[in-house]
Amino acid sequence: MAKPDLDRGSKAFTRGSKRYSIFSLTKNAGSYHQEWQQAWRHAEPKTTYDAVIIGGGGHGLATAYYLANIYGITNIAVIEKGWLGGGNTGRNTTIIRSNYMWDESAAIYEHALKLWEGLSQDLNFNVMFSQRGVLTLSHSEHELKEMSRRVHAIRLNGIDSDMLSPEAIKKLVPLINIDPNIRHPVLGGFLQKRAGTARHDAVAWGYARAADDLGVDIIQNCEVTGLRRNGNKITGIETTKGNIKTRKVGCVVAGHSSVLADMANIRLPIASRPLQAIVSEPIKPVLDTVIMSNAVHMYISQSDKGEMVLGAGVDKYNSYAQTGSWPVPEHMVAAAVDLFPFLSQLRMLRQWGGIVDTCPDASPIISKTEIKGLYFNCGWGTGGFKATPGSGHVFADLIANDRPNTIALPYSLKRFETGYLIDEHGAAGVAH
User: Fold this and answer.
1) DSSP state of 9
2) Are 48 and 245 in contact, with CB atoms under 8 Å apart?
3) Phi-psi category of 236—alpha, beta or left, where left has phi over 0 and alpha has psi -120 to 50?
4) What residue ranges define each of the domains in the chain, with the CATH number in brackets?
5) DSSP, residue by residue, 193-205
6) Residue 424 to residue 350: CA distance in whole angstroms
7) I need a surface site. Which of 108, 283, 352, 419 has the fewest CB within 10 A?
8) What global pTM score does this model have?
9) Strand partners, 292
């Protein structure tokens, strides 16, 4: 079995007639672009698979793709109860960064970032990865000192990070308010230039198309209703489209991981809560970076369509409701207007929420379970999207080899027994 290159990720694969290129574009222009092939098949489940991935979001599709591309395991099904990318993948604010404090966090997020940098080429699909930088603000002397400590830790892991003064921030982001008398004064910040954003649905579509081209079955509108096992071994799953036999099941269902775990009589140390965002009407380009503020749980960027995208911290209440409570975005918008007064002139068009799994130490679970052949990838909190390629890559490695690699090893369920937690929330004031 092939061994993965953990620094680079997937090897480039060769497409047939489905490959996008200047030649296929020219060819299809003659038919007014009416003869493009379907990006992926709408497959019906077979009776038996070598592995089944439950969850057709970014992480699940990435897992299937790397299983097929790196390990040659192509008899795979991705089971999605709704539509592809219709869960948290389609409900996030697309920030990508690797500026974490703990070594374990830095390892997986930097691994993901390196994969992001070549993902469009690997998938032959434009995921619109934009390395516009992520700027994190500090609003107090305490936060400024903590930020300095964090920057040094980031640099020790070989990751780019630069401290900025309020004046340097103003030069980078002319529209920001650095008046020292505002409610949340800007005392400084740090910038990761290699960080940025990507288009969330394009990531799902790119992985789906690439996985399908390698023979993976993508099965939508098919809900898993039970996990079948013989003693301590997985033997298959029960779905609304019939039973499927398999020896390996990877569960990647952000927000509903505990529901699947209950089917196997496993209790995971996670809680499900809504994570909210809000979008303004589109305007001309005014913000070419991502601004984050941990103190007020607010972040803002501008999409490719011109919308100002604002995100908040997770709700304090456990819920499966994809709306969340109103005080959260209200607080977020108030803080945003404080820092960017021009936002008060904009209409907010829509808001939404996605259900995230959060662990006690604010770090994910990538782990085997006590049931042979059952694996879980969950607990990403608000940080799931940025980890998509890295998460899928190491999870595929775990499923293929039945053992974690060096990046995934710290994220085992065993850490809740040993006490070796990766408390990124306590270290850096983030929930992810």
Assistant:
1) B
2) yes
3) left
4) 43-125+199-269+361-428 (3.50.50.60), 134-193+271-358 (3.30.9.10)
5) TT-EE--HHHHHH
6) 31
7) 419
8) 0.93
9) 136, 299
